[in-house]
Amino acid sequence: MALFTFKGGIHPADGKELAKDQPIKEYLPKGECVYPVSQHIGAPAKPIVKKGDRVLAGQLIAEAGGFVSANIFSSVSGTVTKVEPRLTVAGAMVNSIVIDNDGLFETVEFSAKPYAEMTREEVIGAIKQAGIIGLGGAGFPTHVKLSPKDPDAIDNIIVNAAECEPYITADYRCMLECPEKMIDGLEIILDLFPKAKGIIGVEDNKPDAIKKLEGLVAGKDRISVAPLKTKYPQGAERSLIFATTGRSINSAMLPADAGCIVDNVATCMAISDAVKLGKPLYERVVTVSGDAVNAPGNFLVKSGTCVAELVDAAGGFKTQPEKIISGGPMMGMAMSSLNVPAQKAFSSLLTMTKDPVAASPVSACIRCGRCVSACPEFLMPTKLAQLADNHEIDRFEELNGAECVQCGSCSYVCPAKRPLAQSMATGRRQVLANRRARAAK
Amino acid sequence: MEQLFKVSSNPHVRDKVTTHSIMLDVILALVPATLVGFYCFGLPAVITTVLSIATCVIAEYAWQHFMGKTVTIGDFSALLTGLLLALNLPAGCSWYIPVLGGLFAIIVVKQVFGGLGQNFMNPALGARCFLLLSFTGKMTTFISPCTYDGVTMATPLGVLKEGGYEALTQAFTVKQMFIGTIPGTIGEVSAIALILGGAYLVWKKVISIRIPAAYIITFAVCILLFGGHGLDLNFLAMHLFGGGLMLGSIFMATDYVTSPITDNGKLVFGCCAGLLTAIFRLFGSGAEGVSYAIIISNLLVPLIEKYTMPTAFGMAKKGGK
């Protein structure tokens, strides 16, 4: 089997055995649900409900605040109790709609126009209306992605099914349990771009998923399954595009500039729901895993559910964790508190009994070059980190420091345990701020 | 007050490889060569090695302690420097040779420039060159292998320099050089032991094969072209295995701190060292050339890195700034 891959990268322990064999279980939230108005890249959504309003599951509660923005829907039935700043996954206080869940889960009747009768604009409109954003983690509004400047130039629709982050198995379970829905979502996108072919990129550590998908796409000549070498960060957008099409893009380009649109598994499923059923995005599959929970598993979670409830869903804590992470261990965000809502792009809750970062004292760089070999963007992390630490931002920019995708491979491999990715992130933020300042002049 | 968890920037996992584990791997890889050296030269070799290691470790401890720095002898880098220095010394040299060498390596070459990771030349080789220039006689007097009688003997490359190729083929065979029963510094004599150690390091991904390969190939090509013996493979083998080339190319030139971190830079660096070694051996006044070739190449590292910096992904076609 020919494997598609990229140059660089690392092989962290994958930890997927904890949850990979656990079927998806629906989890219904018990307590209040919280919906931050900014769960996506772009303008915050505007709340359209107020304190005291009764809402149903699937009801629009905040509407997109611009073209690059997304609608937000309630996932439960109940009463709006507050609209106030709440702590979110990223650690910031964000204006949020708080709904007192009545536990009835009364749902809005969804309706959709027959797909065959829908125009291109109506399909994109349905996706926009459903509030769909990139569910791989970035949270970029999908309708924007599907409206490139030159639709005819798009020749590849890539489904990101690599799931290269350790521990996370949500996409894998979806591909085993409801692959038809994902393929349906892909076919909807393919109908929008008649010249494009569809590629489903799956890491070869999921042979059963690859086999299943290959069987399902056997009769479809526009779709192929690309088995990818299991290597982190295979699912990083630029690495995935290179692995499947051989095209390279940099930070100044969008995938569309290389004729590609990349959507992950959960996003494709949401597109199918939105277009075929008229069902907006208010629930998704989340992996709850790590060595600190009793029963790691995969759960269909309503957005807005308090993360602390997910710990209970996974059988509670077995040990007191030192660290809890939203997402995977490589690119996920460490959370100070469990009292935050699982928002749309929340793919995983990882619990770690020991925090390896705190247990690894930082020492001097020995110039081993491991970070250089691991960097999928072909940068020199140790040099860039030093420049960023010394505030030599112009030199950092000259050496393409802003190309860093924050995959964390450099910090992972560093034998001196230097927080290279963190220094690079700091440098990169300053470069972007400088560029904005220059552009404003 | 609600329970708060630790937060830090991503990633939240770390590889098992540490500076300490890398140093330990290199030390392990040097064990075969060290043992052959001990076997060939007996107690004097052991004494020289112990003195060298002890001096390096104590010097590092003392410097860091009295300068109010964190003591880092636990990372084993000073121990490794001491071992490498010893392997580059003749067995049974006066006691002050390894002691002065160790002090020079740790204090002058390493700590004065900022400690681990900051030195611009290989500490052990810097010290060896210092000793070669200062105590030329003692540094070029070698005892005969496996006789344990203290009789001194010229090294294969020494014989070659003084008496020519014919004298060399009468005195030694390639097989002896490969196994290690020849006079020389403690660690350089056994080519097979060094290659074994090198293979272990490549397998453990501690070193990349680029530097040794580029080094040895460049050197071999130069010897074949300019050695004056045409395609005589025996002559080539004697150059490859009869001196410090294996120890130098596998263990000294691959020192992380003083070699380039870029993949292409490693190749350039290896070629550079190979070329210089050939020039020194063929045209220089001394029999050896590996140490000087490597420390001169060390000095070129910043320049090599500057011109071998990889092009960032996706930046090749469009200069996307």
How much strand content do the residues of chain A show? 15-25%
Helix run count of chain B: 14
Strand order of the largest sheet of chain B: 1-2
Order of helices and strands of chain A: EEEEEEEEHHEHHEHEHEHEEHEEEHHHHH
Total count of strands of chain B: 2
The percentage helix of chain A is 25-40%
- How are the strands of the biggest sheet of chain A laid out side by side? 1-14-13-17-15-16
Mean pLDDT of chain B: 93
Q: Which pair of protein chains has the largest interface, and what are the residue counts? A: A-B, 70 and 47 residues
Structural class of chain A: alpha/beta
N-to-C CA distance of chain B? 48 Å
- What is the general shape of chain B? globular
Task: Determine the fraction of residues in helical runs of chain B and give it as a percent range.
Answer: 55-70%
Main β-sheet of chain A: number of strands, strand sense, barrel status? 6 strands, mixed
Structural class of chain B: mainly alpha
Give an overview of the whole structure:
- The complex is a heterodimer of chains A (441) and B (321).
- In chain A, α10 (381-389) crosses α13.
- The longest helix of chain A is centred in the last third of the chain and has 21 residues, at 420-440.
- Chain A is built from 13 helices and 17 strands.
- Chain A has helices at residues 120-129, 142-145, 170-177, 179-192, 207-217, 237-245, 265-277, 307-313, 370-374, 381-389, 393-398, 409-413, 420-440; strands at 24-27, 33-36, 46-47, 54-55, 60-63, 72-73, 78-87, 93-101, 156-161, 197-203, 223-228, 260-264, 283-290, 297-302, 323-326, 333-335, 348-352.
- In chain A, α5 (207-217) links the parallel β10 and β11.
- With 441 residues, chain A is an alpha/beta fold.
- Among the domains of chain A are: 115-277, 3-Layer(aba) Sandwich (Rossmann fold); 370-440, no CATH class.
- In chain A, 59% of the residues are buried.
- Chain B has 2 domains: 19-138, no CATH class; 154-307, no CATH class.
- In chain B, 62% of the residues lie in helices and 1% in strands.
- Chain B has 14 helices and 2 strands; from the N terminus they run ααααααββαααααααα.
- Chain B has a two-stranded antiparallel ribbon with strand order 1-2.
- In chain B, α2 (43-66) runs antiparallel to α3 (77-87), α10 (210-226) runs parallel beside α13 (263-283) and α13 (263-283) runs antiparallel to α14 (290-307).
- The relative contact order of chain B is 0.11.
